[in-house]
Amino acid sequence: MSRRETLASIALIFVVAALVRAAMAAQIVFPRPEDTAYYVHVARNLLEGRGLVSDSLWSYQTPPLVFPRPAFEVWLPLPTFLAAATMTLFGLTFAAAQVSSVLVSSIAPVLAWRLAADVAEERALPRGRARTLALGTGLTAAVYLPLVLYGALPDSTAPFTVLTLAAVLLMTRLARSPRGARPNDPRLIALGAVLGLAALTRNEAAILALVWVGVAWFATGAGRAVRVRLIGVAAVVALAIFVPWAYRDWLVFGSPLPGQAAVNALSVVGRDIFAWNDPPTLARYLAVGPARLLEMRIEGTFHNVVNVLLLLGIPIAPIGLLALPWAGRGRTLRPLLAVALATFALDSLVFPVATTLGTFLHGAGAIHVLVILACLLALDAALARLATRLGWHRPVGWLGPAMAVFGGALFTVGLLTSFGTDARETADRFAAMNRYLTVSGATPGTDGPIITDFPIWLADTTEANALALPNEPAADVLDLARAFRGTRLVVVFDGEPDERDPGPDPLWPAAATQGPGSECFQPSPIDPAPGTLTERERELLRDVRMFWIDCP
Q1: Phi and psi of 126, rounded to 5°?
Q2: DSSP string, 499-542
Q3: In the prediction, which pLDDT does 214 show?
Q4: Fewer CB within 10 A of the end CB, N or C, for the chain?
Q5: Helices (H), ranges, 200-268
């Protein structure tokens, strides 16, 4: 492929990806889900001179439990730094933060194109089929719903996808000629930098590092000294990037490692992450019994296969998943396949409850690219076999990528309005709550924190500090309120069961009227003085339940 053709392909794929993601971003006017709001909220606080802090406390397992809350006791900071970069240029808004995600995520289809070109070269495909496979993979990734949706949201998904793809591309190149990789080899230094940045994005970066150790150690023709050099140089560069952040965590949280992320492995139900007096423990975890422990893993595996990979990727994913065992053969895809299998196994078997709330979803971007490539390889092989059998003389290899691009784009466009509607509805609801708080006497920013089931959203849309509402009885929530002086309001937005969480139904708002401590919670109707809220605002808050704490 000529340099001119290469640059044209890169430009075409990047521009298409950016336009599609910008269109999605324009529809999503509010940071959904809450983790997206967290990254943006911390970026805004950083740019306002407050530092890396949050005004919400959504988990109580890592001290210090104070306001403002030091950020990133579980998540990692690179998405916030990227959002802050574009917010510096375009203003302290969610739309400005989305620019970072649109630009970063548009790199992923370009890397998918490069990966497909490498696979075509390894399989010695004819030149025309190779070009079609590579370009088709890039353009399909540009319109593929899971990659587009999270390309419009400034969270960890898009940067981790790009870093994972960049890492596996560098791994395969270094593994082809390990003896030629000197300590100052730009590829080796770049790999270390990518691994370090990945470690500032998601904890699954540890899997990337382990895969590189395996690739380097078993590289053909590499002696012991070469293997040690390959692993050591990349490790030194990666640690140089990550260690300052680990030191910060040590100073702030008392540990350089994400201990709370490990505790999430002991969750029995999804709401355990908000626990106050009943946190996850090993004894509590084992007490559910072998049958439930097995059932949790079946549920986690089903969720990751069906909800994350299959349904989000229709109509491409079913073909890609079926073809993956065949398509994944070969040295080029071996590192990515190893990353995919290890990530899937870790999230499904070690974090079976947390994964139903998004753990695998946010780390699966590169796996979606693998599924796309497997689909197009299968379509390419099927069309080539059909052409041979029917004696076609004109190439038809373009047909598979064309169908994939069309199918992916159709599904993305079909759901575009739905995502936009949900985002606007959520934005309006929290704007109405902010309006209510200003006329109800709650005085956000002056009183103590508000306890709520959506603490990140509430803190991001009001001046209030917010505490996560634990799924515990009234006495425990009263204990939480007393631990944070001045707390006198509980707001429950959603008291309905969550289909993603197979545990017991939420205790609130019913807990405010049952058991010890419930006498301290006085219900407050969403009905301030006439004319203070519009009919639309009243409708948006119709299902919200509020309770004033009336005990010392």
Answers
A1: -55, 155
A2: TT--SPPP-TTGGGGSSTTGGGEEEE-S--STTSS-HHHHHHTT
A3: 92
A4: C
A5: 205-217, 224-253, 259-263
Q: Residue 396 burial (CB < 10 Å; 0-12/13-18/19+)?
A: middle
Distance of alpha carbon 533 from the chain centroid: 36
294: tokens are 């097995």
> Considering the chain, what is the average pLDDT of its residues?
89
pLDDT digits (tens, 9 = 90+) for 244-281: 999 999 999 988 877 677 788 899 988 888 999 989 99
Tokens 């990806």 appear where?
A: 17
| Dihedral angle computed from the Cα positions of residues 506, 510, 460 and 430, in that order, rounded to the nearest 10 degrees | 110
d(C-alpha 137, C-alpha 313), whole Å: 14
**pLDDT at residue 525 above 70?**
yes
Q: What are phi and psi of 468, to 5 degrees?
A: -70, 135
56: amino acid identity, one letter? S
Beta bridge partners of 492: 545
User: Comparing C-alpha atoms, which of 150, 156, 153, 149 is closest to residue 30?
Assistant: 153
Query: What tokens appear for 316 in the block?
Result: 């491409």
> Which token pair is 452?
């709520």
Backbone angles phi, psi at 422, to 5 degrees: -60, -40
Q: Identify whether the C-beta of residue 170 lies closer than 8 Å to the C-beta of residue 191.
A: yes
Q: Helix, strand, or coil here: 545?
A: strand
pLDDT at 220 over 60: yes
Percent of the chain having pLDDT more than 90? 60
Rounded Cα distance, 114 and 169, in Å? 8
Which pLDDT belongs to residue 148?
Answer: 95
Look-up of token digits 């336009």? 19
Beta bridge partners of 56: 466
Token reading at 61 = 């397992």
CA distance 245 to 43: 16
402, two tokens: 């064309």
**Local structure of 303: helix, strand or coil:** helix
> What percentage of the chain carries pLDDT values higher than 70?
93
pLDDT at 500 (0 to 100): 56
69 has a pLDDT exceeding 80: yes
- Structure confidence by residue, pLDDT tens digits, 123-165: 989 888 899 999 999 999 999 999 999 999 999 999 999 999 9
Tell me how far CA of residue 194 lies from CA of 123, 170, 529, in angstroms: 27, 9, 57
